[in-house]
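Quick one: Adiponectin receptor protein 1 from Rhizophlyctis rosea, structure tokens please.
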Amino acid sequence: MSATAATSELRERLVHQGKEVAEVMNDVVRETREKGKAWWQRGRLRLFKFEDVPRYLQDNNYIRSGYRANYTYLENWISLVHFHNESGNVWTHGAAFIAFVSMIFIAFFGDIHPNAAFSDRVVFALFLFSGSLTFMFSTLFHLHLCHSEKAYIAFGCLDYSGISALICGSAAAVTYYTFYCHSKYSTFWLILLIFVNLLGVFGPLFKAWATAAFRKWRAFLYVMSGVLSGAPMLHYLMENGTSALPPADKYFAMPGVAAMAGFYLMGVVVYVARFPERLAPGRFDYVLHSHQIWHLFVVAAAFTHSRAILAFMAWRLDQDTCPAVM
Ligand SMILES: [Zn+2]
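--- reply ---
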């Protein structure tokens, strides 16, 4: 074979092999695209009606459609950018989580008060951290509850832990500033309320927590947690009278606490009444059903409380020293 013929054969073979490689690559791209499309369509949220979802998801029979069910965790994450009957619940607390985490940076580096010491920044940041935990756990619960009953229970427990964290953070900050000039009382109440609420944060992570045998201890703990949120303030009032509270015309502290309590109360009423979906079942499946409104009230309460804590802080830091008798 001449050199020219050999070169030409080699070229032909290379072209042939090149074509084969191109074909294989083409197949890979086509198959990947088809598989990806099928996968995306699978992930593209089949939504179900109330009667077609597993029993554990049938929590509110006034919400008739828009249910996800038996999704993988990946599909749940994809469902973040789709519209279903949990989207509002996920995004209300998801957005609040992002806002609270951002505010932690403001607590440390922002202009929260000209006299703010590092300890003041830590107290405010701890409240914001407790809020961030609450909103994160709630977001994860609403995002993943449709995976399985096991996931529903596990993330539901985290949701409960978050509530105790927020109660603790909220009450601790107010207690710290009300008894700012009386460290003995402040230490007593803070240790007690942090201890009880930590039981509430970690308790739900144990299996025994949800059992019937534990019911009365659970109830006792949540009642104690509620009592401890108000008891230090009551104690302070009994010791010092209402005149020793931050003046409402100058500081948003007491009006803030009242507004926060009002938001929670209104939220609970809407939540329990299942309003407005009970008036028109199926009409509020995606937007503005009671759980979403409850979430919005919780967010409003938490933001109002953050303003109230800054007002309590300003009230104390505006005074040069503690009064002699407290
Ligand atoms: Zn919720």
